[in-house]
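Methods — Computational structure assignment.
A single polypeptide chain was analysed. Its primary sequence is given first, followed by the predicted tertiary structure written as structure tokens.
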Amino acid sequence: MNNALSALASQPSLATPVYFYDMDLLDRTINAIRQAIPSDSFHVHYALKANVEPLILSRIAQAGFGADSVSGGEIRMALDAGFRPADIVYAGVGKTDAEIDLGISLEIGCFNAESVEELAVIAERARLAAKKVSVALRVNPDIDAHTHHYITTGLAENKFGISMERLESALQLVTRSEWLSLKGLHFHIGSQITTMEPYRILCERINSLQHHYASKGILFDSINVGGGLGIDYEHPDAEPIPDFAAYFNVFDRYLELRPGQELHFELGRSIVAQCGSLVSRVLYMKHGLEKDFVILDAGFTDLIRPALYGAHHLIENISSRSDRKAVYDVVGPICESSDTFGEKIELPETQRGDLIAIRSAGAYGSVMAMQYNGRQLPGAIFG
């Protein structure tokens, strides 16, 4: 069990549910990324959609990373945390005119455009502002990353990105516009990817595209390969920091960068997931006919991933001192049958008042919390 979490068990008045963030682990993760980067041409942007706690954002900004945002709100959060406008990239399939205008006025580093139609709107907003803006084209390379269908984003036909068949027309629109400056190509093939093979295939697709367009005299200043690197949800203490060296090595080995070309990454989950845990208190032990239930004061309003994706998180009783084990369904208080964190979970013998930690919840946890059933949003403490 994580030592920082164990210390919480000595706080009987701890207000729950609450997110606990191990800032030492966050710092070690950031340092591991910096040490694993093999070249000055590699640039890491933090994907704000994973977690926007101000203290976490400022720590990542201080490390010199850029920001990957998907809304005007995230752009403002990035600026408030200390990210430079020039280091902000802005993706998303549904940018509003106001959000585009915000990015233009702040002179952010790049818009990652996801459709030909969006490019036309960005060009028009740039014309109205009398400012030339940098754009990268998000391309769907049609690679199956073998993740949950809700978080697979690189297939040929989904709402994200520009298909290979429409890339030519998108490039023509950019190169003919006096208000758009072509910065590069952008890719993102999915999330929670735990093998390197999809990234190797991505490198091959990018190499092929670059060769094709170089023969036509079209060169790209940068390539953005997105993120998606997964974590070990089953063994967070044994594998607290992903193998960033292996991840970067795939691109260093297989991607044929041109002289002076930059390579950008958009990492989110792999930076913050393991440092965060949702801590909850046991409200009731319910003994059914065939099951025993641990009913928590946390629900899917605080951590929606299990209900939304069927996602697995390690669940630990951090306060029980019992040597005896029992099997439980661990559920929340929400008036929905999907409000279940795990079934047939073996825990130390558990009782009312015990503290339960749901691990690896630093990404897509608090940032997706809601107030359904009139519930308060969970708090946060930092250790």
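Note: The longest helix spans residues 197-214.
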